Amino acid sequence: MKNLVKLGLAALLSTGSILLNAQRKNTENSTLWEISGNELTKPSYIAGTAHIMCSKDFEIKTKVMKALEKSEQFVMEINYTEPTEIAAMQKMYQTDKKLSEQLSPEEANELDKILADYGTDLKKMDHSSSQGLYALISMKALPCPQTEIKLYEIELLQNALKNKKKVSGLEKVEDQMTSINKAYDLKAVIGQLKMGKEYEILLKEMVEAFKKEDVQSLYTLFKNDKIMNAKQEKAMLTDRNKNWAEKMPEIMKKESAFFAVGGAHLMGENGVIQLLRSKGYTVKPVSSL
């Protein structure tokens, strides 16, 4: 489990770990949603997660744990219990071509200077993939040491395993890698690294909003175009949301499910909630269970 936690942290960091939950109406403020109707015999649930938080801010609300307990299966973005997925994750941060070989001398020198702000340098990171570089952003933005980081999905996973629930994933590591590469090439990641302090401020505001389940504020914060432009949003959110929304009906039809996904996937016209509603499901915020 210790190695699983480490890999989970790395994967969550590389997939936009500060992206949280948002939805379109002030009256729909919740990080937990119930899915019913459309011939479902039992309700399922979807929780928007904050991926990673410092232990001092971390909390899984009682209603979320109760929803997980009521569900017959636990579904994550990626199934961290599959050996093949773990192996794929381990390769995720390696690159066949050194970073320095992908950049001009001037660009490599600039990256080396940027990395100094993250406590490392290009020599140490030269064999990392762009995803490995991207993970540095969230690590720096979090105002606590790595030993005090809590992983929302891993906490839920441990509970699900303890209660012997079936565990599965909505996509494979390879799928996620394809999306990340479409959204953030090396130069785009370097641009994100330059933001530095801006990420720290933004993450703090997001965490506070998430703790209050103030999804409207989270939506406003998330729409900061410095984090994600239209092309990146399509690759990281829209396309993946549509793929997941196609898979979820079959999963829910068989057994009640508890889905845990990065909260940004719930939001907007192309968010999972609206996509499920368009398929005829009733999806409503849960205040308590």
UniProtKB/TrEMBL annotation:
Endpoints of the signal sequence: 1-22
Q: What is its main location?
A: membrane
Q: Which UniProt keywords apply?
A: Glycoprotein, Hydrolase, Membrane, Metal-binding, Metalloprotease, Protease, Signal, Transmembrane, Transmembrane helix
Localization per Swiss-Prot or TrEMBL: Membrane
Q: How does it sit in the membrane?
A: Single-pass type I membrane protein
Q: Cross-referenced InterPro entries, in alphabetical order?
A: TIKI1/2-like (IPR040230), TraB/PrgY/GumN_fam (IPR002816)
Which residues are listed as membrane-spanning? none
Cofactors required:
Mn(2+); Co(2+)
Q: Which PANTHER family match?
A: METALLOPROTEASE TIKI, METALLOPROTEASE TIKI HOMOLOG
**Organism whose genome encodes this protein:** Chryseobacterium vrystaatense
Question: Which superkingdom heads the taxonomic lineage of this protein's source?
Answer: Bacteria
Q: This chain belongs to which protein, by name?
A: TraB family protein
Q: Does the keyword Hydrolase apply?
A: yes
